[in-house]
Records
---
Amino acid sequence: MVGGSRLVGEVRVTGAKNSVLKLMAAALLAEGTTTLLDVPDILDVEIMAELLRRLGCEVTHDQVGGVVAITVPAILDHRADYDLVRRMRASICVLGPLLARCGAAEVALPGGDNIGSRGLDMHVDGLIKLGARAVNEHGYLIASTEKRLRGESVYLDFPSVGATETILMAAVTADGTTVIDNVAREPEIVDICRMLNEMGARIAGVGSSTLTIEGVEELHPVTHRTVPDRIVAGTWAVAAVITQGDITIHNAKVEHLQIALEKLVIAGAVVTEVEDGFRVVMDQRPKAVDIVTLPYPGFPTDLQPQFIALNAIADGAALVTENLFEARFRFVQELARLGADVRTDGHHALVRGRLALSGAPVEATDIRAGAGLVLAGLVADGTTTVYGVSHIDRGYSGFVPDLVRLGAQITRLEEVG
Ligand code: UD1
């Protein structure tokens, strides 16, 4: 890509990756056909579809219409193999539903990935609390229960998104009432709770820190529209600000991005709500903004690299604190190849804004780092080549065509090696 263009126009955001993968797993809880709408056309959805097929489901994916239909048989296989789990860590979200449906689940351990160690201890402890046994054998997490799981009180040490989902999906058909305290409150958690309740679950406290789940005998399939992807919407908002552009983002919810949009306003942007989203206009060099990542409703870690890119060309210096994933700063070494002035120490990064970045080849190491590097490339002098585009494909559907429509000078090259 060649930097320097102002991005102007409109984009529509699809359903959230971090919701739809879990909704696909939740479909396992009901025999019959569950239909999901507004599904993004991204690689991770394909991986999850393949995983569900191997468990015995029929899965169709209409990429253009954004519809996934999952037909779940009466009897499911209960093993998620390493070849898929290693490609997508979120595969772990089949653990809870498989245990609930089959009384057993064998899921390959994902191991470390590019943004840190990401333990599973809270997932496992929660399932054990509900009566399951769990062992780690030959690289697989093997969970089983002879009887139905039973409702219990579970307290999470940290409001983990994944652990909340695993325990929730195991508890909806457990015997009795489960109370999960200190749960994650992300919009994606609200989305899965809503879908489970539509399926016949009885979950109270949706959106709060405590979920009370009265176990039911069985769930039924539904049709459900996926919540919009707040991280993709936030990425477009940063794109407008960093390029001093004007982008209207449709199918986006201001209330899901409150702190991030507030930061863009402090940077100098004008953000206005439109009927189904918001518009971000910027006509000056952005001012540097400090950020601290925290569980929702705090600033999302998945927008941290994009904001570091923004700070890299901002007026002033910013302190960025990462509280969720320790290795998420790895990407700043790539950003430094574009001339960014970023120093890290533990979970802090000090970003001193430069007047300009300078185009260079860089490598994306994860989805959001990839997005951050593309944003930086949009304002770097000369040509920037981002390698590892497959990471970006995991989270952003139609990213390059959308950028082109908004006026970016960018082309997608076939990756070699
Ligand atoms: C999800 C999102 C990811 C987002 C993150 C935080 C998906 C597919 N991914 O990841 O994009 O950045 O939420 O908003 O939805 N932890 C433990 N033990 C556990 C579980 C988690 O120590 O049992 C730690 C992790 O190492 C990490 C922190 O808790 O440091 C947050 O993890 P969690 O909220 O579970 O994130 P994910 O569900 O993996």
---
Amino acid sequence: MTITSENTITAPQLTINGESRASDDTLSVIDPSTGQPFIEVPSASLAQLDEAVESATRAFAEWSSTPITQRQAKIQEIGQVVRDNLDELAQLVMREQGKPLNNARGEIMASLRQVEVFGSIELEPEVLRDDETGKVVLSFDPIGVVGAITVWNYPFLAAMFKLVPGLVAGNTVIIKPSPYTPVSTLRLGELLQGVLPAGVLQVLAGGDELGRALVAHEGIHKISFTGSVPTGKAIMASAAATLKRVTLELGGNDAGVVLPDADPETLGPDLFWAAFSNSGQVCAALKRLYVPEDKVDAYAAAIAREAAKVVVGPGDQEGVTAGPVQNAAQLEQVKRLAQAARDGGGEIVFEGQVPDGPGYWFPTTIVKGLSEGNALVDEEPFGPILPILTYRDLDDAIERANSTVYGLGASVWTADPNSQEAIDVAERLEAGSVWINQHPVVTATIPFGGVKQSGVGVEGSILGLKAYTNPRVLNIKR
Ligand code: NAD
């Protein structure tokens, strides 16, 4: 146990070759609700990266030839360890990420769905042909050593999204969490030292430089990355040198289109949470809402009514339902976009309360009166601010919803989810996932990924699992 009665936390260490390891360098991790460092964790050196890759390579030989059912039994053990340490892990996620404790618990619980689904999924060889002329069998081999690079909005969930399918498929995995939120992933690495053979799962905290080295490393065969579009592009370029496989889960600027038949009062709460869950720091949050011109005030009022119920504050405070922005750079980004909205003639229809004093606070903010060309509409805020835009007709709404380089998620909102009109609009929206009357839904059983510049490949479902494999064909002539 690492949390003492004074609420100070013993820093978890790197996990390399099955052991806890310190480092000469450290990362100072800031509690976003105070703006102050609360812990120092080791920052892995490039020599430690080499050591981890060597260990992962050694471990791969045995792990990859272990039957998948035995690997899945280990995944179930991982699930048990996570359940047994739920309280501690939730505390760590709350402290490093800033979200309310209940939501941190929810994040850990949600990660167990990965265990449930991939811990029992079948990845059998497929017989493509079997007749008198021959037999063709397609099987799915592990790729090798996987480098997993994660982000700070759901630090624990993002790690589990990668390590669980990566390991089930027979790879060994090295995770590099975000330098803003390395603590819960490091702790998970420590907790799993007794569960997995040395080198099968390793955790190296470090900055962007370590991420670059991981991507360039000749001993790593696949990168699974969650983060921003610019970093995704840099990773794809760097991975080309060694032809690493990449899965890139990148940013979004998701549009929601509300059909004329819908009722503002009915949809207000769901629209609010679609945009503001996790203080808006969700890759596939609703980030641009298109409503019919004559109903904009009714939607603004209905969403604002839900916004008024939100209590922003430190995650461990009773009654708090939303935390701060996770880091100073992101706060600056949100402030810049809010200022652009004001400068561009946007009308602030709702602005919530935030605590006094330090911490990366930004009020829940709803804006109307903007259109494309304003930075708040064109860029991804990744924070608690939503522009409500108006459209003339559905062709206009769809064209503008699609007028972006992003294509992560999108949604259609209607009084009749079975209507052909709702499905027609959904089919015209350019996104990896289009939801009707909800936004977003991301879970282990459903493929999730972006089109356009929102990503390459998917996570979740058998497709997400196969992304951690090399297809191999056996072709017999009879
Ligand atoms: P970021 O790209 O700056 O950092 C993410 C991770 O990449 C960190 O671990 C960082 O250290 C590492 N990194 C940075 N530069 C690197 C490089 N050149 N090579 C290798 N690794 C490098 O991400 P951010 O801006 O902090 O995160 C916010 C973004 O993440 C938003 O755009 C959000 O939409 C996106 N996101 C996407 C998903 C998804 O599933 N599609 C989920 C969550 C967040």
